[in-house]
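This part of the workshop introduces the protein records we will be handling. The question running through the whole workshop is how a given chain folds. To make this concrete, we reproduce a full record directly below:
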Amino acid sequence: MMAMTSRTGKRSFTFIELLIVILIIAILSAISIPRLRNAFYGFRLEGFAKDVYYLSLYLQGSAAAKGKIYCLNISPDQRNFRATQKKEDVAADENKDEFEAVKGNYGKLLEAPAGVVVSIEPHPAGELYFYPDASMDKSLNIIFTDPYNKKITLAIKGAAGAIEIK
C-alpha cells in the first residue's frame, strides 16, 4: 500500500488502509483466541493430572520407606483427592478406616480445576491403599477430561505397583 502525501507535504495512510489493517488484526484475533483458550485448559488438565500422579508416587514411596499403609481418597463427584496415612496407634489387623491426613503439603486437599471431570474405571470405590511392599489394593484408571474433551488417564496397576500417565 502506498502512503498518500497530504497537502502539507507529509506522508500518511488513507482511512481505507487503516481499516484493512484493523480488519486483518480482528480476523487473526478471532482465529487465535479459541485456540489459546483450548491450550490453557489443556495445560491446566495436564498440570492437575501430574499433581495426582506425583501424589500417588509419593504415597507409594512413603508406604515402602516408612512401612505404613497410606491411602489416596478419591471423590470423583466432588473432583478432589486427599492423602491419608494409617494412624500410629492402630494395629495392622484392625479396621482400615483409622486414617489421618498426611502432614505437610501432600496432606492438603487436591481439587480439580473448574471444568475438569474426574471419572474412575472400573471401580467407583473412593479409596486406593498403598502398602509397604509398594503394591496397591486394586488396579484402576483415573480419567481426567477437560471441557474440550481432551482426556488424560492415570493408570494404576495394583499388585504390580505401576503408576503411569497415558
Notes: The chain has a mean pLDDT of 84.
